[in-house]
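agent> Task received from the user: take the single chain below, predict its 3D structure, and emit structure tokens. No templates, no multimer pairing.
agent> Plan: (1) validate residues, (2) run structure prediction, (3) serialize to tokens, (4) report one or two observations.
agent> Step 1 OK, no nonstandard residues flagged.
tool_call: predict_structure(input=
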Amino acid sequence: AHFPYTSFDGLDPTHRVLRARAVERVEEAFVGRLTDHHIAVRLRERYDVVSLFQYLERVADPRAELRGALRVLRPGGHLLVDVADPRRLFPVHAVGLNAELVAQGCTVLTGARAHRVIARKDAPASAA
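)
tool_result: status=success, residues=128
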């Protein structure tokens, strides 16, 4: 596949992301979290790919952050998640992160025990 335009944006709760933009590591920089209202509104369904690398295990509410990531992802877009132990984050579900992603309306494209999970956000079912 050929992608004529690709850009990388950064989101961080600290102002370090602004330094990344200043040295052109990211095109746009956003200070905050995926759960912040101003982030959710501005970035709703903006991205084809969202990556959460070793992020969910460091936040107080990983489910809320996962929902936030899915809000900024377009239907059909891909979510890339890398965590040390996906079952530890979502212990209520037998298979942890994968079950949570399915519950959030995604199709998991990687194996059940993967520490690196790729999921596709499914398009909402159209009303018949």
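agent> Step 4: summary for the user.
Helices lie at 16-22, 37-43, 62-72, 86-89, 97-103.
agent> Done.
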